Amino acid sequence: MRYVIIGNSVAAINACQGIRELDKEGPITIVSAEKYYAYGRPLISYWLEGKTGEDKMPYLPPDFYTRHNINVLLGRKALRIHWERQEVELDDGSRLPYDRLLIATGGKAIVPPLEGLQEEDYVTFLNYDDARRLAELAHPGKEAVILGAGPSGLKAMESLVSRGLKVTMVELAPRIWSPVLDTEAATLVTSFLREKGVRVILEDTILGGSRKEGGKLKLNLKSGKELEAGLLVVAIGVRPNVELLEQAPGVTLKRGVVVDEYLNVGLPGVFAAGDVVDGNPPLLPHAAAQGRLAGRNMAGAREKYKGSLPYNALGFLGLHIISMGITNCEPGQGYEILVQKEENERVYRKLVLQNNRLIGALFINRLERAGLYRWLIEEKIDVLPFKDKLLQDDFGFLDLPPALWEARLKE
Amino acid sequence: MYARREYCINCHLCEVYCVAAHSKSRDVWKAFKREGLRGTHRLRVEERRPESLPVHCRHCDEPQCVQGCISGAMVKDPETGIVYCHEDKCVGCWTCVASCPYGAVRPGYRNGRPVALKCDLCRDLLEPACVAHCPNRALVYEGGTT
Amino acid sequence: MSAIRMNPPEFRVVRDEEKCIKCLVCVRQCGFEAQQYDPEEDRVYSLDENCVACQRCVCLCPTRALRIERNPVPYKLNAHWTPEHIHNINKQAATGGVLLTGMGNDKPYPAYFDRLLLNASQVTNPSIDPLREPMELRTYLGSRPDYLGGEKDRYFGPTPLVPIETPIMFTAISYGAISHQAFEALARAAKAYGTLFNTGEGGLPEDLYEYADHAIVQVASGRFGVHSEYLNAARVIEIKIGQGAKPGIGGHLPGEKITASIAATRMIPEGTDALSPAPHHDIYSIEDLRQLILTLKEATRYTKPVSVKIAAVHNVAAIASGIARAGADIIAIDGFRGGTGAAPLMIRDHVGIPIELAIAAVDQRLREEGIRNRVSLVAAGGFRSSADVVKAIALGADAVYIGTAALVALGCHLCQKCYTGKCSWGIATQDPYKTRRLNPEIGAERLYNLLHGWSHEIKEMLGGMGINSIESLRGNRLHLRGVGLTEAELKLLGVKHAGEGM
């Protein structure tokens, strides 16, 4: 069995591991457009900040590929796929035949129309090369504007602030990271950012701009305001990278590629995993889980992908957030909200319940045992018997009926 | 490794010796007084008097902390089955904290860096320190396999 | 009530701040709230007046940062008015109550065991190496016939002899006085070693019936937990008349300690006080006692020897004679050093006689009356070592009960606060936060080790005397010599003074 994997990030690597769990022999070829061995994408901000080094970027030890008989083609792009011949055509003209193919091409940074600005006038914040470009541009004292105050915008902000830049964030929504943070949480985080010297502009966006003399950018905002910047980062999100699948027979493309429960795209032997998949949250744990399962199914298993609720851990400038499930909703409409606040410590913990089941949780600055809540969510456990204990600081198994956990802890 | 909670006496000595076993000196006093490692235990004792319960990593077959790790620091040793964290590689994003269904990975701080604190079954010792030092044999280690 | 705390703390906690790592194990483990933590100040401190010197914190502190000291009391020296008397008067002046205490008499009365020395073989008779030659410690408890075949003469028929692999048994300590965990440890160790434990007067918990074959079950004045199955499951039945720590008075287990399980075992309502009357209300004479002995034997079809336990008191020899004649198979005599979970201090410290004298007197009396064969004699009350055991057997005992020594093996440090129910070691408490501190598995191992160690030492001592069986030592007072004893004491003990030959 010949395996070809297009993409070389977390989904791809986990697919290799999944394949090797069942098939120790079949040659695997990874086609990597980037010229780096696989690294966790979220690491780029840590690298940019100097919190991790180049040597620690690789997701796996260097001998992983050789040990598992995996051939990695770095800096090689797949141009198109010849579906009937089961071949991938590469940018050097060569063709790679496959029996099983994984599309793990991830996502592309979304860049809105920016009138008057060229590609070299801004930087996206998605991959290692973006971070390297930023490292060259981000000099202390420079003024940076970041478009988008979601997770990647916030991480970019952290890196730039810690490199000594003056940062302004521009966010179209009425609050930062609006899908996850409710008004109160966003206010807490925003005030923290402002205290750290970050300027946050809400309900506004950048329409375009121009480069002035001396290299500075003048940015025009929707509100009519103008901003000056030495550096512009665009971080408003990612879009699944489905180019290779356009016009593939039998394949449905929505926002991403539609897969069945086995992660097959609708063509024999062709699977997809990670951010490229429609409906999959663009989050690392989910890409890893999908990748591994896709790998196993490529190697002959027939396992269904169950999926899990989106969850995310995000920290910047010493503030830490963990979110899971549905967090941004107000009481009413069948939701019950439990909240704990400690304003001095900037602690905010919020649980969202529906029919006595936990469906979401948001933790700011007090994260201990967050995973326990995720378990309650994933297992749809009735929390009525211990609802009043849920937000105790030392909430744990002993607050739960032993039937729920005793056997699990002895396995 | 598992706990016989009926014998857990809430002394938290498992935590104390866990800290020491993961210190440079391997000495309780030095770990606390010189290396500043107070609070860096990897297992935790839950407390609801009269009950108490040591909770530690289960070294899952399909560890979600490994799956969620953004840096590749969290790994499962294919031979021993031990799930552990390469602390020099960990960047402290805390995805593992959110991942672990047992709440057994702790957000911590060591050697001036944020690192995920998690049980490694004292890989280089014959027996995990918590088990060896439990005064009431509340922790049981049936070594080797997981 | 006066707000002045009249009594200075008896102990003080000395914490070496340099060694302390503030792990708080002391705070969590102290059963008496003497160890405290103030999170605001991040300070571990002590309330010395609460400290009972049970040593729990000292033993668990990982850096050995703790020491308990006697708090020096700077009263004007007074040989008559000791600090203890002053403190006791203060306590009673405050409460109007009876002074309570736990464990055994701690006053400096003479310990005759410490005035008796053993013999050893030299030249003319060979000593025996127990590691090379057989050495018999097995002891049979029960009534022997007056002559071979004499069993048939007995009006009420014989009961079987009960073998124990070492002449050491665990004394009566009830479930209720001690935790289930401690009780279970005793039962497990007795079974593992092939000896017996004693249920005390609190019955046998249902989940421990697997150990009943190694149980002496008590029938006491409160009749707690006595039922047909209990009697028939046991190996030996013991009628408890008295107890060395508190001769002449009954018992009182307060309602707080009567948990659901203890209530079920004792067959009384949960949370009610368990009161053991001072006398059995159906026993006012040897004849009454005989009736109860025979009732119990009838109830068990003469398959269980019956023991009668009394406290060592002034007239013990005559009482023992009566008990033997009443049909008892075993007489257990509990000396004034015997322990208890709770006793009035005055009773504990001022009533009863030493076990050494009682054993000697009873053995002598029964021999003189020609009825020594009818009973086994079990001595109890303050046995601290295998040497004490050997000396008691040489004085005339068949076997001994150990209680305090067994509890020490389980962690007891003799703080004497059993009556508070706060035992930090999980022994004399029913508080589920503390009872779990005693893992019965570990407890049973430690008790087994103790029995093993003592038994080995007994073999060594026997071998030294040129004896290869414990039976040959029983009542063999020629192997004992007194040191520094008066004529009267030597006569009562039936031993010669050291220096005198055979």
Unreliable spans of chain A are: none
Count of DSSP E strands of chain A? 23
Q: Any low-confidence stretches of chain C, pLDDT <50, length ≥5?
A: none
Helix content of chain C: 25-40%
* Domain module count of chain C: 2
CATH-assigned fold name of the largest domain in chain C: TIM Barrel
Name the CATH homologous superfamily of the largest domain in chain C. Aldolase class I
| Biggest interface pair, counts | A-B, 44 and 38 residues
Task: Tell me the structural class of chain A.
Answer: alpha/beta
- Under CATH at level 1, the class of the largest domain in chain C stands as Alpha Beta
Global structural class of chain C: alpha/beta
Radius of gyration of chain A: 23 Å
Q: Roughly how many Å apart are the termini of chain C?
A: 65 Å
Strand content of chain C: 15-25%
Helix content of chain A: 10-25%
The CATH topology of the largest domain in chain A comes to: FAD/NAD(P)-binding domain
How would you describe this structure to a colleague?
- The complex is a heterotrimer of chains A (411), B (146) and C (502).
- Chain A is an alpha/beta fold and 411 residues long.
- Chain A has three domains: 3-108 and 238-298, 3-Layer(bba) Sandwich (FAD/NAD(P)-binding domain); 119-234, FAD/NAD(P)-binding domain (3-Layer(bba) Sandwich), CATH 3.50.50.60; 318-410, Enolase-like, domain 1 (2-Layer Sandwich), CATH 3.30.390.30.
- Helix content of chain A is 21%, strand content 27%.
- Chain A contains nine helices and 23 strands.
- Chain A has helices spanning 10-22, 43-49, 63-67, 128-137, 151-162, 183-195, 284-298, 370-378, 402-405; strands spanning 3-6, 28-32, 70-74, 78-82, 87-90, 95-97, 100-103, 107-109, 123-124, 143-147, 166-170, 199-201, 206-211, 217-221, 226-229, 231-234, 238-240, 270-272, 311-316, 319-325, 335-342, 347-354, 357-364.
- In chain A, the strands form six sheets. In chain A, strands 3-2-1-7-18 form a five-stranded parallel beta sheet. In chain A, strands 9-16-10-11-12 form a five-stranded parallel beta sheet. Chain A has a five-stranded antiparallel beta sheet with strand order 19-20-23-22-21.
- In chain A, strand 22 (347-354) and strand 23 (357-364) form a beta hairpin.
- Chain A is globular.
- The model of chain A has no long low-confidence stretch (mean pLDDT 95).
- Chain B has 146 residues and is an alpha+beta fold.
- Chain B has two domains: 1-56 and 122-146, no CATH class; 59-103 and 114-118, Alpha-Beta Plaits (2-Layer Sandwich), CATH 3.30.70.
- Helix content of chain B is 21%, strand content 21%.
- Chain B has helices at 13-21, 28-33, 64-68, 95-99, 129-133; strands at 2-3, 44-48, 51-55, 74-76, 83-85, 106-110, 113-117, 139-140.
- Chain B has a two-stranded antiparallel ribbon.
- The longest helix of chain B is centred in the N-terminal third of the chain and has 9 residues, at 13-21.
- Chain C is of the alpha/beta class and 502 residues long.
- Chain C has helices at residues 25-29, 56-60, 83-95, 180-193, 228-233, 260-266, 286-299, 316-325, 345-350, 355-368, 386-395, 404-409, 432-435, 440-464, 487-493; strands spanning 11-15, 35-38, 43-46, 66-70, 100-101, 116-118, 139-141, 162-164, 168-170, 197-198, 215-219, 236-240, 251-253, 274-276, 306-311, 330-334, 343-344, 376-380, 399-402, 480-482, 496-497.
- An eight-stranded parallel beta sheet of chain C has the order 9-19-18-16-15-12-11-10. A three-stranded mixed beta sheet of chain C has the order 6-20-21, with helices on one face.
- The interface between A and B is large, with 44 and 38 residues.
